[in-house]
Amino acid sequence: MGKDLLLITSDRAAATGDDTYQWTGQGFSDLFVVNLQDNSVSPLAGAVNTEANEGTPALSADGNTLYFTRCDAPKGEDAYCRIMRSERQSDGNWGTPNYLPFQQAGANYMHPALSADGQTLYFSAQLEDGWGGYDLYSVPIVNGAWGEPVILGRAINTPADEQFPQLDQDTLYFASSGTREWEDWMYFVRRNWHRVIGHLLSI
Q1: In the chain, N or C: fewer CB atoms in 10 Å?
Q2: Phi/psi of residue 15, nearest 5 degrees
Protein backbone atom coordinates (compact mmCIF):
# COMPACT_ATOMS: atom_id res chain seq x y z
CA MET A 1 0.00 0.00 0.00
CA GLY A 2 2.92 2.37 0.54
CA LYS A 3 4.27 3.82 3.77
CA ASP A 4 1.88 6.78 3.71
CA LEU A 5 -1.26 4.70 3.09
CA LEU A 6 -3.39 2.82 5.60
CA LEU A 7 -5.99 0.17 4.72
CA ILE A 8 -9.03 0.21 7.03
CA THR A 9 -12.56 -1.16 7.49
CA SER A 10 -15.32 1.42 7.80
CA ASP A 11 -19.11 1.74 7.58
CA ARG A 12 -18.90 5.44 6.73
CA ALA A 13 -21.44 7.00 4.40
CA ALA A 14 -19.24 6.41 1.34
CA ALA A 15 -19.56 2.62 1.74
CA THR A 16 -21.35 0.73 -1.03
CA GLY A 17 -25.10 0.17 -0.71
CA ASP A 18 -27.98 1.80 1.13
CA ASP A 19 -29.11 -1.00 3.49
CA THR A 20 -28.75 -0.81 7.26
CA TYR A 21 -26.80 -3.48 9.12
CA GLN A 22 -29.08 -4.64 11.95
CA TRP A 23 -26.26 -5.38 14.42
CA THR A 24 -24.90 -1.82 14.32
CA GLY A 25 -27.73 0.34 12.99
CA GLN A 26 -25.19 1.72 10.50
CA GLY A 27 -24.43 0.96 6.89
CA PHE A 28 -22.53 -2.11 5.71
CA SER A 29 -18.74 -1.89 5.87
CA ASP A 30 -16.21 -1.61 3.04
CA LEU A 31 -12.45 -1.34 2.72
CA PHE A 32 -11.00 2.17 2.47
CA VAL A 33 -7.55 3.68 1.97
CA VAL A 34 -6.38 6.50 4.24
CA ASN A 35 -3.70 8.85 2.93
CA LEU A 36 -1.68 9.75 6.01
CA GLN A 37 -0.17 12.78 4.30
CA ASP A 38 -3.41 14.69 3.77
CA ASN A 39 -5.81 12.56 5.90
CA SER A 40 -8.04 11.87 2.88
CA VAL A 41 -10.09 8.64 2.80
CA SER A 42 -11.19 6.87 -0.38
CA PRO A 43 -12.80 3.50 -1.17
CA LEU A 44 -10.38 0.75 -2.16
CA ALA A 45 -10.16 0.81 -5.94
CA GLY A 46 -11.32 -2.23 -7.87
CA ALA A 47 -13.79 -5.07 -7.41
CA VAL A 48 -13.47 -5.80 -3.67
CA ASN A 49 -16.22 -3.65 -2.16
CA THR A 50 -19.86 -4.72 -2.60
CA GLU A 51 -23.20 -4.14 -0.87
CA ALA A 52 -22.23 -6.89 1.59
CA ASN A 53 -19.93 -6.41 4.61
CA GLU A 54 -16.22 -6.36 3.72
CA GLY A 55 -13.56 -5.97 6.40
CA THR A 56 -10.43 -7.11 8.29
CA PRO A 57 -7.93 -6.87 5.40
CA ALA A 58 -4.54 -8.59 5.34
CA LEU A 59 -1.91 -7.78 2.71
CA SER A 60 1.00 -9.88 1.49
CA ALA A 61 4.49 -8.49 2.08
CA ASP A 62 4.80 -7.33 -1.54
CA GLY A 63 1.41 -5.59 -1.38
CA ASN A 64 -0.01 -7.49 -4.35
CA THR A 65 -2.28 -10.03 -2.66
CA LEU A 66 -5.18 -9.05 -0.42
CA TYR A 67 -7.14 -11.30 1.94
CA PHE A 68 -10.29 -10.03 3.62
CA THR A 69 -13.60 -11.09 5.14
CA ARG A 70 -16.92 -10.83 3.30
CA CYS A 71 -20.24 -11.54 5.05
CA ASP A 72 -23.20 -11.95 2.75
CA ALA A 73 -26.32 -13.99 2.03
CA PRO A 74 -29.07 -14.14 -0.57
CA LYS A 75 -32.34 -12.54 0.51
CA GLY A 76 -34.10 -14.58 3.16
CA GLU A 77 -31.14 -16.88 3.86
CA ASP A 78 -28.69 -17.02 6.75
CA ALA A 79 -25.60 -14.87 6.30
CA TYR A 80 -22.16 -16.48 6.52
CA CYS A 81 -18.72 -14.93 6.45
CA ARG A 82 -15.99 -16.09 4.08
CA ILE A 83 -12.34 -15.24 3.54
CA MET A 84 -11.68 -13.81 0.09
CA ARG A 85 -8.52 -13.30 -1.95
CA SER A 86 -7.90 -10.58 -4.53
CA GLU A 87 -4.84 -9.80 -6.67
CA ARG A 88 -3.63 -6.32 -7.60
CA GLN A 89 -3.97 -5.70 -11.32
CA SER A 90 -1.53 -3.95 -13.65
CA ASP A 91 -3.55 -0.72 -13.39
CA GLY A 92 -3.25 -0.74 -9.59
CA ASN A 93 -6.87 -1.71 -8.98
CA TRP A 94 -7.87 -4.89 -7.16
CA GLY A 95 -9.28 -7.76 -9.22
CA THR A 96 -12.42 -9.80 -8.66
CA PRO A 97 -11.92 -11.75 -5.40
CA ASN A 98 -12.36 -15.49 -4.98
CA TYR A 99 -13.36 -17.59 -1.98
CA LEU A 100 -10.55 -19.61 -0.47
CA PRO A 101 -11.22 -23.24 -1.46
CA PHE A 102 -10.87 -24.96 1.93
CA GLN A 103 -13.93 -23.25 3.45
CA GLN A 104 -16.92 -25.42 4.35
CA ALA A 105 -20.52 -24.48 3.58
CA GLY A 106 -22.67 -23.36 6.50
CA ALA A 107 -19.77 -22.13 8.66
CA ASN A 108 -18.21 -18.74 9.39
CA TYR A 109 -14.60 -17.95 8.43
CA MET A 110 -13.10 -14.54 9.12
CA HIS A 111 -10.20 -12.32 10.20
CA PRO A 112 -7.32 -13.48 7.95
CA ALA A 113 -3.71 -12.82 9.03
CA LEU A 114 -0.78 -13.71 6.79
CA SER A 115 2.69 -14.73 7.95
CA ALA A 116 5.58 -12.54 6.81
CA ASP A 117 6.84 -15.19 4.40
CA GLY A 118 3.36 -15.59 2.88
CA GLN A 119 3.33 -19.34 3.52
CA THR A 120 0.78 -19.55 6.34
CA LEU A 121 -2.63 -17.96 6.75
CA TYR A 122 -4.19 -17.67 10.19
CA PHE A 123 -7.90 -17.07 10.67
CA SER A 124 -10.85 -17.43 13.02
CA ALA A 125 -13.68 -19.89 12.32
CA GLN A 126 -16.63 -21.51 14.04
CA LEU A 127 -16.38 -25.17 13.01
CA GLU A 128 -17.68 -28.47 14.32
CA ASP A 129 -14.18 -29.70 15.17
CA GLY A 130 -13.51 -26.63 17.31
CA TRP A 131 -13.45 -26.32 21.07
CA GLY A 132 -16.41 -23.99 21.40
CA GLY A 133 -17.31 -20.67 19.78
CA TYR A 134 -14.74 -19.28 17.37
CA ASP A 135 -11.24 -20.78 17.33
CA LEU A 136 -7.99 -19.83 15.62
CA TYR A 137 -6.69 -21.98 12.78
CA SER A 138 -3.70 -21.99 10.45
CA VAL A 139 -3.49 -23.25 6.89
CA PRO A 140 -0.29 -23.68 4.84
CA ILE A 141 0.21 -22.32 1.34
CA VAL A 142 2.63 -24.60 -0.54
CA ASN A 143 3.68 -23.58 -4.06
CA GLY A 144 0.48 -21.60 -4.41
CA ALA A 145 -1.72 -24.52 -3.29
CA TRP A 146 -3.76 -24.60 -0.09
CA GLY A 147 -3.20 -27.30 2.51
CA GLU A 148 -5.63 -28.45 5.19
CA PRO A 149 -6.52 -26.04 8.03
CA VAL A 150 -5.24 -27.03 11.48
CA ILE A 151 -6.76 -25.80 14.72
CA LEU A 152 -4.27 -24.10 17.04
CA GLY A 153 -3.70 -25.70 20.43
CA ARG A 154 -5.64 -25.38 23.65
CA ALA A 155 -2.95 -23.06 24.98
CA ILE A 156 -4.55 -20.48 22.65
CA ASN A 157 -8.12 -21.63 21.99
CA THR A 158 -10.72 -21.84 24.76
CA PRO A 159 -14.37 -22.95 24.97
CA ALA A 160 -15.27 -19.30 24.27
CA ASP A 161 -14.26 -17.14 21.28
CA GLU A 162 -10.82 -16.39 19.84
CA GLN A 163 -10.76 -13.89 16.99
CA PHE A 164 -8.84 -11.08 15.24
CA PRO A 165 -5.38 -12.71 14.97
CA GLN A 166 -2.46 -10.48 14.04
CA LEU A 167 1.18 -11.48 13.57
CA ASP A 168 4.39 -9.62 14.38
CA GLN A 169 7.39 -11.89 13.76
CA ASP A 170 7.16 -14.61 16.45
CA THR A 171 4.30 -12.94 18.32
CA LEU A 172 0.60 -13.62 17.78
CA TYR A 173 -1.92 -11.06 18.99
CA PHE A 174 -5.55 -12.09 19.25
CA ALA A 175 -8.80 -11.38 21.06
CA SER A 176 -10.28 -13.88 23.50
CA SER A 177 -13.43 -13.91 25.59
CA GLY A 178 -12.34 -17.13 27.28
CA THR A 179 -10.96 -15.65 30.47
CA ARG A 180 -13.83 -13.51 31.62
CA GLU A 181 -17.53 -13.08 31.06
CA TRP A 182 -18.71 -12.70 27.48
CA GLU A 183 -18.84 -8.92 27.49
CA ASP A 184 -15.19 -8.54 28.55
CA TRP A 185 -12.80 -9.11 25.67
CA MET A 186 -9.17 -9.55 26.60
CA TYR A 187 -6.39 -8.97 24.10
CA PHE A 188 -3.51 -11.38 24.60
CA VAL A 189 -0.07 -11.85 23.15
CA ARG A 190 1.56 -15.24 22.80
CA ARG A 191 5.25 -15.71 22.01
CA ASN A 192 6.37 -18.89 20.25
CA TRP A 193 2.86 -20.35 20.73
CA HIS A 194 3.57 -21.87 24.17
CA ARG A 195 2.06 -19.58 26.76
CA VAL A 196 0.20 -16.31 27.10
CA ILE A 197 2.63 -13.68 28.34
CA GLY A 198 0.17 -10.87 28.97
CA HIS A 199 -2.93 -8.97 28.01
CA LEU A 200 -2.98 -5.57 26.40
CA LEU A 201 -6.40 -4.27 27.40
CA SER A 202 -9.92 -5.25 28.33
CA ILE A 203 -13.13 -3.77 27.02
Answers
A1: C
A2: -65, 155
For residues 201 and 118, which has the higher predicted lDDT (pLDDT)?
A: 118
Alpha-helical (H) ranges within 8-165 are none
Distance between CA atoms of residues 109 and 124, nearest Å: 6
Report how far residue 119's alpha carbon sits from residue 146's, in angstroms, rounded to the nearest whole number. Answer: 10
Q: What sign does the dihedral 22-23-29-35 (CA atoms) show?
A: positive
SS3 125: strand
Q: Are 122 and 165 in contact (CB under 8 A)?
A: yes
- Of 72-86, 91-105, 141-155, which one has max mean pLDDT? 91-105
**Strand ranges for the chain from DSSP E:** 5-10, 20-21, 26-27, 30-35, 40-43, 53-59, 65-72, 80-87, 98-99, 108-114, 120-126, 135-142, 145-146, 150-151, 162-168, 171-176, 186-191, 195-202
Q: Are 153 and 160 in contact (CB under 8 A)?
A: no
Contact 103, 112 (CB under 8 A): no
pTM: 0.89
